[in-house]
Design brief:
single chain, mainly alpha, MetI-like fold
Length: 283
C-alpha cells in the first residue's frame, strides 16, 4: 500500500514538472522571439514564421539606435527616462516613507480621518484625473518638461499604505531608546527607522522605478519635443520607417534595451527582497 502511494506521488510530481516546464517554455518564448527578431532583417520578420533562428543575423538595428549620426534619439530617450525615473523614485521613497511613518507612529489631530481619506483615494481610477492633471500642468506652464511627469506622481497612495503597515510593526522600544539617547523624532526616523526599513523601502523603490520607467500615458500627453521623449514614447516613434513601413526589428531592439535597466535593478535589490528584518533593538 505504501509502495503504491509512493509511486503515485512520483507520477504526480513528474506530471507537475512537465506542466511547469511547458508553461515556462510558453512564457519565455515571446521574449526569446523578441530577442531573435531584433537581430533579423525586416523582410524575414514580415515573411512570417516562428523560428528563433535566422541565416541573416545582423546587429544593424542596435548600431542604428546607438549612433546619433543616423538620426536616432535613443540615447537621449534613455537619459530622459533615467532622469525622470531616478528623481521620481527618490521623491516617492522619501515622501511615501515619511507619510507612512507619520500615520503609523505620530499622534496628531485628524490622523485617522487623513488615513481614511487616503484609503478612499485609492479607489479613484487614475483615468479620472487625466484631464484635471493636464489642466493644472498647463496652467503651471510645465508642459513639455520633466516636472510634468514627476510632480503628479510625486507620491503614491498605495505605497504610503504599505509603509504605514510596516511601521505599525516597528518596535516602539527602539524609538524610546533613541529618545533616551537624545535623538529627536526626525533624527530617529533618518538614523534608526529608515535603515531598518531597507527591505520595504527597496521593494517600494523597485516598483516605483518600474512605474516611472514604463509610464506611457503621461509622456504622451505632456511631452511634444522628440528630444524630450522618454523611452516608452520614443519606441512608438521607432515603428515608422522613412518609407512609412513598420520597423518591427528596430522596435524589438529598442524594447530589449529598455528591459536591461529593470533586470539590473532587480539583481541589485534582490538581496533586500529575500532579507528578513530583525528589529530586536541590538544596534
Amino acid at each position: 500500500m505504501a509502495l503504491r502511494k509512493t509511486n503515485k506521488q512520483k507520477i504526480l510530481r513528474v506530471l507537475l514538472y512537465v506542466i511547469l516546464i511547458i508553461y515556462a517554455i510558453i512564457t519565455i518564448y515571446p521574449f526569446l522571439f523578441a530577442v531573435s527578431a531584433s537581430f533579423k532583417p525586416l523582410s524575414e520578420i514580415t515573411a512570417g514564421g516562428m523560428s528563433l533562428w535566422s541565416n541573416h543575423f545582423t546587429p544593424q538595428q542596435y548600431i542604428y539606435l546607438f549612433n546619433p549620426s543616423s538620426g536616432s534619439l535613443f540615447i537621449n530617450w534613455t537619459i530622459n527616462s533615467l532622469i525622470v525615473s531616478i528623481i521620481g523614485t527618490a521623491i516617492n521613497v522619501f515622501l511615501n516613507s515619511m507619510a507612512g511613518y507619520a500615520l503609523a507612529k505620530l499622534s496628531f489631530p485628524g490622523r485617522q480621518r487623513i488615513y481614511y481619506g487616503i484609503i478612499a483615494m485609492i479607489m479613484v481610477p487614475a483615468q479620472v484625473l487625466l484631464i484635471p492633471n493636464y489642466l493644472i500642468i498647463k496652467n503651471l506652464g510645465l508642459l513639455n518638461s520633466f516636472a510634468a511627469l514627476i510632480l503628479p506622481m510625486a507620491i503614491n497612495i498605495g505605497y504610503i499604505f504599505m509603509m504605514r503597515q510596516f511601521f505599525l510593526t516597528f518596535p516602539s522600544d527602539v524609538e524610546e531608546a533613541a529618545a533616551i539617547d537624545g535623538l529627536s523624532r526626525t533624527a530617529t526616523f533618518f538614523r534608526i527607522v529608515m535603515p531598518l526599513a531597507r527591505p520595504s523601502i527597496a521593494t517600494q523603490a523597485v516598483f516605483v522605478f518600474m512605474g516611472f520607467w514604463n509610464n506611457f500615458l503621461s509622456p504622451m500627453l505632456y511631452l511634444h519635443d522628440p528630444s524630450k521623449f522618454t523611452l516608452t514614447v520614443g519606441l512608438q516613434s521607432l515603428q515608422s520607417a522613412d518609407q512609412g513601413g513598420q520597423m518591427w526589428n528596430r522596435v524589438m531592439a529598442g524594447s530589449i534595451m529598455t528591459i536591461i535597466p529593470i533586470i539590473i535593478l532587480y539583481i541589485f535589490f534582490n538581496g533586500y527582497f529575500l532579507q528578513g528584518v530583525r528589529m530586536d533593538g541590538e544596534k
